[in-house]
Amino acid sequence: MTEDRISELLAKYPWYEAARVAASGGTVRREVDVEKLAEESEGEIISRFLRKTDFRIVAEEGDVEREVCIEAEIDDEDDLVSEELAEIYLVQGLKCEAIEIYRKLSLLNSEKSAYFAEKIEKIEKNN
Question: 80 pLDDT band (50/70/90 cuts)?
C-alpha cells in the first residue's frame, strides 16, 4: 500500500487503525504493567471489565418458557422401563423407542450411564 493511499484512507476514515499502523511504519506495541495485573484478582478484573463495558447477563422478565431438567421425569406411563423392553423394541425394529428406553434407564441408573450410552451409540450407527 502506498503512502498516498494510506494518507487518503486516514483522511477519509480517521478510525482506520490498520492505516495508522502502516503509516507509522510498523506495529504499535503498548506496554503492559505485568506486576499490576498480577496484583489484581480475577474478581477485580471482571468487576473492572463490567464497570467499563456493562456487559451483564440479566434474566428476562416474564414466565419461563422452558426449564432445564436435571433429574429423570418418569410418569405413570413410564412404569415399564427395562432393558428387556428396549431389547424387544430392537427385535421389532423400533429403534427410536429402544433408544428412548435406554436414555431413561441412563437417567435412572447413573452408575450404568456409560453402558447405556454405548448401547445407544450402537443402535444409532446401525440406523
Answer: confident
**The model's pTM:** 0.41
State the burial class of residue 19 (Cβ atoms within 10 Å of its Cβ: 0-12, 13-18, 19+): buried
- Cell 499502523: give the residue: 21
Q: Which residues contact 95 (CB under 8 A, 6 or more apart)?
A: 89, 123, 126, 127
Contacts (Cβ under 8 Å, ≥6 apart) of 55: 49
- Kindly report the CA angle at 19 between 15 and 21, in degrees rounded to 5? 100
Angle at 18 between CA 16 and CA 21, to 5 degrees: 110
Q: Is the pLDDT of residue 18 over 80?
A: no
Listing DSSP states for 5-56 in one string gives HHHHHHHH-TT-HHHHHHHTTS-------HHHHHHS-HHHHHHHHHHHH---
- Calculate what percentage of the chain has a pLDDT beyond 70: 62
